[in-house]
Amino acid sequence: MLRFVVRRLLLLVPILIGLSLLVFLWTRALPGSPAESLLGERATPAAVAAIKKQYGLDEPVHEQYWNYVKETASGHLGVSIASRRLVTEEIKQKFPATIELALAAMFLSILLGVPLGFLAAKRYGTPVDHASLVASLIGISVPIFFLAIILKYIFAVRLAWLPSVGRIDVTNFEFEPRTNFYILDAILARDWATLRDVLEHLILPAVALGSIPLAIIARITRAAVLDVQSEDYVRTARAKGLAPRIVDRRHILRNALLPVTTIIGLQTGLLLSGAILTETVFAYPGVGSWLRDAIFNRDYPVLQGGVLFLAAVFVLVNLVVDISYAIINPRIRYS
Amino acid sequence: MRRKSLRFGALLAALTVALVAVASGFGRPDGGGSDTLVFAGAADPTYLDPALVSDGESFRITKQIYEGLVELKPGTTVVQPALATSWTTSKDGKTWAFTLRKGVKFHDGTAFNAAAVCANFNRWYNFSGPFQDASATYYYQAIFYGFKKNESETLSPSLYKSCKARGNTATITLAKRNGPFLPSLVLSAFAMQSPAAMAQYGANQGEIRTGAFYPTGTYAFSHPTGTGPYKFEQWTVGERVVLTRNESYWRAKPPLKTIIVRPISNNTARLQALQTREINGYDLVAPQDIPTIRSASGLKVLNRPPFNVAYVTINQAKPPMNNILVRQAVAHGLDRQSVVNSFYAGRAQVAHQFMPPQVPGYNKDVRKYPYDPERAKALLQRAGLTLPVEIEFWYPTGVSRPYMPDPKRNFEAFAASLEKSGFKVVAQTGPWRPDYVKKVNEGTAGHLNLIGWTGDYGHADNFVGTFFQTYSPQWGFRNNAIHRILDRAEQEVDTKKRDKLYLQANKLIMDFLPGVPYAHTTPALGFEQRVRGYVASPIGTDPFYGVSVGGQ
To answer: Which of A25, A212, A294, B339 might form a disulfide with A299, Cβ 3.0–4.6 angstroms?
Structure first.
């Protein structure tokens, strides 16, 4: 097991190098440069040249790449061209917000998706099953930003149940975050009012962001349960006279969860990209809205550093998923 | 089996109830109570050292913390005393003596005096290395051209020469006469900062990282220190900047105790945050949201005086545009009134010259060119051309500017009216990003193109001076009468004489017709009705001093 983990971690190095090249070429292939984006009407040829010189954008592309690799290898991800702050500082500040949002979305989608899928499979062919299929189809097809705007309109603007923007009540002056994971910070500080406020701010973005994984998890669970419950060992277990509850839990659900776990891993990665839209609509200060602005501003250092960082997270999440296979299903052994 | 599904049903129901229970406690927030204003801009500030930034979101904050020697009378472009109570100019226009307000203190308790004024001017003048980059000191370079030791060939010699502190007077000497000097001092970039705080928190420390300047001191992030009505309290990037009342402010105490400015980049999100009262007001209202705010109870729209101009460039380097008759035909062939009526939702007025009416030197009596297709055709025939005259007309795609919300529709309407006026229009488009503006500036965007300008400060030089003071490939003409009068006007420090020169310049320009200005737009802000005393400035940096929320 340990050897497997180490090998996977070592594999991360060539993956990141290849990815850095891809991201670098991609940002350079985008039309325009930060200079024109920053200057707008004031983009005289002289001003454009000055900005390109300042950021080394007038050097040959291979030299730009080499400089970037050198900087990245030494732990610097550069300075944002738009905000002129360190990319590493910005990640430190914004990443916890996105993690909190992604985890909340994943929590919601697992909590609802797995039971829904299970229920649909158990009631195969009944109206409950059909309803769940239709609902998950809608969940997959409705664009996140559209759902987000609708949710906001209903629950924030019309009903005034929930806040529409941000992560926390901006008039809260007592709360002092330590880790930038606000839920954790509020619990550590035993500040229940703030915890409640943070959760309130999290609900709508998490529901919007979690809608697609919820639908997918429900469908995969349903399919997997249908598959597993017709297996011989399930029939045998039932024939032995085991209580249906135990058959469901130990024999069906546990085996059905294997493909579901894979999907959860992949979806967690996708949540990070979905966060770009959700965070923008909810003015949620995470890496998603930060990367969106960077694309508009052609902010190369942010795109390069931010995407590389997210890619590393994506790979790590999937490593964790692979390890969790072994826990869910003891038949799988890594060597 | 049934029991199992019942249990799932119960779980779902419990979860829903829990969510609603958490949510139902939220209610409609009151937006922060009567001694707090929560205001939304579109982004975080860059730094809080106004000398090192040029963006509106940074100035939105620094305007409350710092003050300049002079300021704008709220809502206008009229210069009035602020930290200087009066000033005199020498006969040659090079020396300016500012008499300073007594008893003013910076937020760190140190005294504001003539030495502090000179320390600020000398700080800018002595900037070196990365500080000389245009992105760091844009406004300093726009007004003062260069530094003590210029490190780039593109920089010109400095306009600023020296500053002397004597008693209560700071005397500034310039290298030559310069008209924009005084009005430009209203810019936040030239606000007075505490020399002691700047030294203590490393305002002049920075280094180059991956080719970009990065300040290593903490001044610009967490210790901005000025004399303004509000003191810096806290900045959480992505969430809020908090300012608190300066209890020892030299004017009457500001009504609000706390100001919170939060960044919300999405237009709809800003609107909805106002509707939910999570904010009390916001800037940069999208034109399509104005009716929503107007019709909502308890909300209101505030107008910002127009300070921009949308225009059609006529490039005289491309014949037949060098013929004045053809340019006049273009002007008569553009149906400006229809465009303004149709595509600006009542938020614009037709422009007749290259600067908005707010700016001193605006000439009401310039030659106007009403839409008249027949006259346009006659002019083209007088120019000896065969109709229709083929012209290339460029417009940008993928962009919406304050002065031009929908370039394509403007273009289509203009093209149609030009076609009725004896022209055959060849449409050309270019994406705003990457290089539409560059093409316009280089003079490679057709005979005609759509573009515009938003002003930085209330001096005509910032409009007509920028466009026409020297030859530029965008316009492709040399006209010594125009270049010279703009030179003279720029150097004139007597405001009456200066305004007279600009009146003449505007007449000359509109007779010569280097392009056709067509719209000045009125940007909007959205507020709760109980927010009072907010006065929008034409230049976009609004003072929050005097604003109150609620009360009788």
So the answer is: A294
